[in-house]
Amino acid sequence: MCKRLGINHRFAPIGVRDLVLRAFKARRPKKQDKLNPKWEGPYGVRRVGPGTYELEELSGRVIKHTCHRIYLKKYYV
């Protein structure tokens, strides 16, 4: 079994202006209940850095903190 996520896991490529979902644990590291949603969004990608992404809401409001790639997943419409 793979002990680390990055060894055999291939992420879908994410670029600027793509829509993504953000994991709740990226924002709140507290324990979550089973029935709470695991992902929030969709958000648009505003800027891509080395492993981090700056996000914005669909209304255009910029999210304050950047987010690492492991907490994002591509949103398909």
Explain what this protein looks like in three dimensions.
The protein is mostly beta strands. The protein has a single domain (16-74), classed as SH3 type barrels, CATH 2.30.30. The protein contains 1 helix and 5 strands. The chain has one helix at residues 5-8; strands at 19-23, 39-48, 52-56, 67-68, 72-74. Strands 4-3-2-1-5 form a 5-stranded antiparallel sheet, with no helix packed on it. 9% of the residues are buried. The mean pLDDT is 84.
What's the architecture, going by CATH? Roll
Radius of gyration, rounded? 13 Å
The computed structural class is mainly beta
The overall strand count is 5
Question: Which terms would index this structure?
Answer:
SH3 type barrels, globular, five-stranded antiparallel β-sheet, 5% helix, 77 residues, mainly beta
